[in-house]
Amino acid sequence: TEVARYLGVPRLYLAANSGARIGLADEVKKLLKVCWTDNDPAKGINYIYLSKEDGETLSAKGSVQGHLIGDNKTGEERFKLTDVIGLTHGLGVENLQGSGAIAGITSKANRDIVTISYVGARSVGIGAYLVRLGQRTIQHVGHPILLTGFSALNSVLGQELYTSNMQLGGPDIMYRNGVSHLTAISDIDAVNRTLEWLSFVPECRNGRLPMLPTVSSSSPLTGDADRPDRTVAVKPKSGEDVRDCLCGKEVKDAGFLPGFLDRGSFFETLSGWANGIVVGRGRLGGIPIGLIAVETRTTSRIVPADPADLDSKKLNLARAGQVWYPDSAFKTAQAINDFRTEDLPLVVLANWRGFSGGTRDMYDEVLKFGSYIVDALRDYEQPVIVYIPPGAELRGGAWVVVDPSINKEYMEMYADPDSRGGVLEPEGIVEIKYREKDLKATMHRLDTTLMEYDAKLNELVSSEASAAEVSALQKSIKQRESELLPYYRQMAVAFADLHDTPGRMKAKKVIRRVVQWADSRAFFHKRLRRRLAELDAVKKLRAASPSTTQAEASSALKNLFCADRKAEKEKEKEKRSSRAKSLKALGLVPRMRSASGSDRTDDEEKIVAETEEEWQDDDLVLKWLARSDVNERLAALGEKMVAEEVRGRCQSHLHTVLQVCTEEVRRSGGDDDAVKAAVKELYDALFASSK
């Protein structure tokens, strides 16, 4: 494990154990004697002892500890045992200490590298913990993961309640609760699944992603080639399997309709647990990504009955789609953490109406597991794209835990034109902010019949008409209001819905761009390529200057790009100006007035604005980053950043250094000229070293 951590490579653990080793000191066992209470075994043990000779011999070897006592009846000297150490190492607690060391290093490894465990035989006690600490687990369908065997549990409980270890830790338990990510029917099946998993992972931590070659739109190749710029043919629909829009599906008379991911690339994990969330790995135009999607159909959670609890029974709990429950929130957070150590870019197809806040779910810690999502995203160091697909909605706390402000350097949010996002659903907003009195006020402002009734009522009141006439008219007004209320409530809902559109999201700058679902594959493929190339350049800058923050390095890279683009534009401008002067000298163009200072300032501001806008152009930035001279300039920029940091530190401490220098020169008898010479020599040395 230490070697794997040092190299940054994945670690595969083949789990097959029966827990911590146990043992007894055989050299003591064959010599021990028992003093029974009143010489009656039925009354219990008084103490265990050895003969004086055996006790002294084993004590000298360090096998036992005790002291000599005399027997009151026989007067025999006995060596009463207080501690059995044993000559053999590995009989008890020392094994637990070793197990703790293994547990600690496995936990560290899971944070630092990719760890995968295959349970190819029973895994008991500390073995079970090691499997869980490694997180990514493939479980053979015929072998359990458990803390205590069923026979031992039956002994503790005093009755035969459990019939097998599979009942305690088989796939029906561990695959359903998220301990096991995948199941395998054989060792070779587990090997194949492991290899498929590793095919998405870089060779080592922070290494290059294993991207597959793609087919461009201009390529003559056809057939099964999956171009990154193709459209997404399967649109997400409520009540249908979300995997169809990810993987594509076969349609009668139409053939195969491709989905968001490359065909056949989706590798789903944790599918037995919290079915309301779909997580896995896939490829987007050859780029490996981690993906989280949301099930819109109603799912169920099965809770098995516990034979040790006579009152328990099997429960089948229905779960609404588009809602985070405690287990699905935990699953989301765990998947994000897994993707983080696998160095995968993350795509979240967000479609949540919020968190379940019922009594049972609040008791089951939905708040805790929801906050884990924020923790996981905050530590993410690869591009994260949160996209709200068509027909989807992202509201309330569900928006908060995936908002890009959690991790601005890496997260971005996008939305389809037909998606929605807001604090509450329109119906809920209307109940609070567009109540019945507001609806009636709108009716009286817009409905011509009510406007006529209002005018007539005012006339009746001003003319002091009879109470019967006023009452009849008021009754007509109420009747008209009742007739219009359902329609105006629909209008209010539609009005509230207009506040949740992607247009408003973009105007408020909470999303970066509106992206059509059909074009999402091509757009996000290009965006990921740009972001990965940009982050690779930022890593080079930070490697040269480790104290530089992510934001500072990103800003330096952007400034370098803008400076390049500005220089190119100014060069092009000079060419145009020179050409115009030549034409002017030949009399081929009319005399032009010379540019004033304000014109030049306006031109410079325009160039700056254009370069800022070009920084958002993924194609342009990708071409710039691919230039051969950019790497050299990045290295030079890194050296410059280091030099500026050293120079700044020198300046911050210069006063103290010069004061010490002056004192040393004077202490050695130097005059003012000697002090000046020493200070100059030191100053020159400091700044020479900083350069």
TrEMBL record:
GO terms classed as biological process: fatty acid biosynthetic process
Domain CoA carboxyltransferase N-terminal: 1-213
GO terms assigned for molecular function: acetyl-CoA carboxylase activity
CoA carboxyltransferase C-terminal domain segment(s): 227-543
Pfam families: Carboxyl_trans
InterPro entries: ACCA, AcCoA_carboxyl_beta, ClpP/crotonase-like_dom_sf, COA_CT_C, COA_CT_N
Source species, domain of life: Eukaryota
Listed PANTHER family: ACETYL-COA CARBOXYLASE (PTHR45728:SF3), ACETYL-COA CARBOXYLASE, ISOFORM A (PTHR45728)
Name of the protein in its database record: Acetyl-CoA carboxylase
Organism from which the protein derives: Palpitomonas bilix
